Amino acid sequence: MNQIVLTGMVLSTAPVGEYDRRVVLLTKEQGKISAFARGARRPSSPLVGAVNPFSFGEFTVYAGRSSYTIQSACISNYFAELREDVLGAYYGFYFLEFAGYYTKENNDEREMLKLLYQTLRALINPHIPDLLIRYIFELKALTINGQAPQVFQCVQCADTEAPAVFSAAKGGLVCEACSTDIIDGIVLDRSTLYSMQYIESSKIEKLYTFTVSDKVMEELGKVMKRLTDLYVDKHFKSLEILETLT
């Protein structure tokens, strides 16, 4: 077996047998992987606190023929603050589930890992509304995955000046001249459109640096609901719980 060190975050964990855990990690080097943490459910195990969801750090693993085994972990951030905030925790679980849905093994997932880390950091910042964090995360995740809507020009004629509506079905903005067959058009406030442009074009480190009005928040919610309904073919248990809480 080959020993390697991976930098990543625990997305989920599940009990296996009497004392072991199966851990899903999102890593910088190998994308999303599953690994076994032998004995991690024993109170005396050095892995007992390291293989919980949200744990971020370096994981030393053995790569076997068909699976990975975690030998040790050096955790740099447990995001322990989320354990004291029920809503924040469920937002966090939703982001973990969402990232797990979009990522794959042996794929370059560095941007998604970076987005996840910065999003959890934003969640423990009391000055940024959790709902805004959700919409920013969802839109940036779609952008990373190559599914970003066109928010800079008309998707059909590339016009940048004419009045336009947003159509999720058409893939973004559609100008007045091209919108005769649009049935899902939303007229967006200029501030909403600017927010979407900023989210799609900004570096991840700069994402969580603004707030929006109630009107913009409402419009972002409508847009993201239509986009996720269109592109995300999965039911997230954490989101269902979150929506009952809010």
Gist?
The protein has 246 residues and is of the alpha+beta class.
What does this structure look like?
The chain has two domains: 2-78, OB fold (Dihydrolipoamide Acetyltransferase, E2P), CATH 2.40.50.140; 81-149 and 181-245, de novo design (two linked rop proteins) (Up-down Bundle). With 246 residues, the chain is of the alpha+beta class. Strand 6 and strand 7 (172-175) form a beta hairpin. Helix 1 (86-102) runs parallel beside helix 3 (130-144). The strands form two sheets. Strands 1-2-3-5-4 form a five-stranded mixed barrel. The protein has a two-stranded antiparallel sheet with strand order 6-7. It has helices spanning 86-102, 110-123, 130-144, 190-201, 214-231, 237-245, and strands spanning 2-16, 20-27, 31-37, 56-63, 68-77, 164-167, 172-175.
